[in-house]
Design a protein that fits this description.
Blueprint (H helix, E strand, L loop, with lengths): L15 H8 L16 E2 L10 E2 L9 H7 L6 H25 L2 H9 L3
Parallel strand pairs: 1-2
Keywords: Hydrolase, Metal-binding, Nuclease, Nucleus
Subcellular location: Nucleus
Family: Belongs to the HARBI1 family.
């Protein structure tokens, strides 16, 4: 996994969309910019937009739903959501590992040494 951008100093209870909005402010010297033709996976709390792909709403999404049903996808939306969930699961697992091993704070410190 390759980290493209880290924005530390936000409380854990902050809304994801608020953090993203702050990261993308054009008046930030270190603003988060999505390169042309690239996309970021976001959860259902966001909307699809340039550079952001969220899952389809009201369509099976969570991996445990797939395992429990033991069925293949029924349509393109379910297939997209399955692949989205698998990819996003890698991101979530990576952050869990970093936090478990107390490396998240170290990562932020190393990236933002001035």
């Amino acid at each position: 996994m390759k980290f493209l951008y880290v924005l530390p100093d936000w409380e854990g209870s902050s809304s994801d969309s608020g953090v993203l909005k702050d990261a993308m402010r054009i008046d930030r010297e270190d603003a988060f910019v999505v390169p042309q033709g690239k996309y970021n996976l976001v959860d259902v709390g966001y909307t699809n937009g340039p550079g952001f792909l969220s899952p389809f709403r009201c369509t099976r999404y969570h991996l445990k739903e797939w395992v429990a049903s033991q069925q293949r996808h029924q349509n393109e939306k379910e297939l997209y959501n399955l692949r989205h969930a698998r990819a996003r699961n890698v991101v979530e697992r990576t952050f869990r590992l970093l936090k478990r091993h107390k490396l998240y704070g170290l990562l932020c410190t190393l990236l933002f040494v001035t």
